[in-house]
């Protein structure tokens, strides 16, 4: 993977980013297992210096270079400043990263990244790391995970849309936004609209109207309208729903990322994927699909309307 070598082998992968608690490490674990079942050789690269308990098999670990607890203790920095220092230290030690990655030539790479939002919205260190990987003939797509519970709060969802857009513009990689933890969405409350409204980011004026029903946000309607205009003018943000326990959901996300980073698989992997998808659902995939979740919302809404009519 010599820098600037046009004849070197292409390497494909994903940089998994998103705020803390969005499920990045769980996603890497699930995607590593899923791709392994269809015969793809996968290496997980942990770039989060605060990541201690990793459920996946880690090929490259930034902890061998630097750890967040050491930085915080020795430099007297807080967690945010410490993470930024760690990423800048990684940027200054590209030779270490190149040597570690070279040991897994021919593999598909999953980069498990830190959860500090500033690293993806305006700080340059991780962006420069991704740019350096591109010079080493890595073809990467950014997988931006967002917790699906934000859909239940219009104000938070608008914030998520702004963050996703800012991340897409700053990171400068092919981008797939993912609504994670879809199997848990019903625990967070009712959605104001059908699920496809949030995944496709449809007419957001309805969201502003819904937000205005809250007395607190009513005074900020004009601000919300302007934020929504920015999001709609770029027309870049949409989401793929993900339940990491459901193989059909994992397949859809994997195929979306494969299109984004240009990965093309051979006949053998295609046959393995068909065999996996046609197999009976096992104990590992016992949650309902996202479509079933959406249907439940529609049915529950219809039932609520019927009850109101009966009360009248």
Summarize the structure in words.
With 312 residues, the chain is of the alpha/beta class. It contains 14 helices and seven strands. It has a seven-stranded parallel β-sheet with strand order 3-2-4-1-5-6-7, sandwiched between helices. Helix 3 runs parallel beside helix 6, helix 7 (154-171) runs parallel beside helix 11 and helix 9 runs antiparallel to helix 11. It is globular. The relative contact order is 0.13. Mean pLDDT is 85; it is low at 1-7 and 280-289.
What is the approximate shape?
globular
- Please outline the major beta sheet: 7 strands, parallel
Overall pLDDT = 85
**Beta fraction:** 5-15%
Write out the strand line-up for the largest beta sheet, numbering strands in chain order: 3-2-4-1-5-6-7
- Radius of gyration, rounded? 21 Å
Number of strands: 7
**Structural class, please?**
alpha/beta
The helix-strand sequence is EHEEHHHEHHEHEHHHHEHHH
Determine the N-to-C terminus distance. Answer: 71 Å
**Percent range of helical residues:** 40-55%
Tally of contiguous helical segments:
14
Identify low-pLDDT runs. 1-7, 280-289
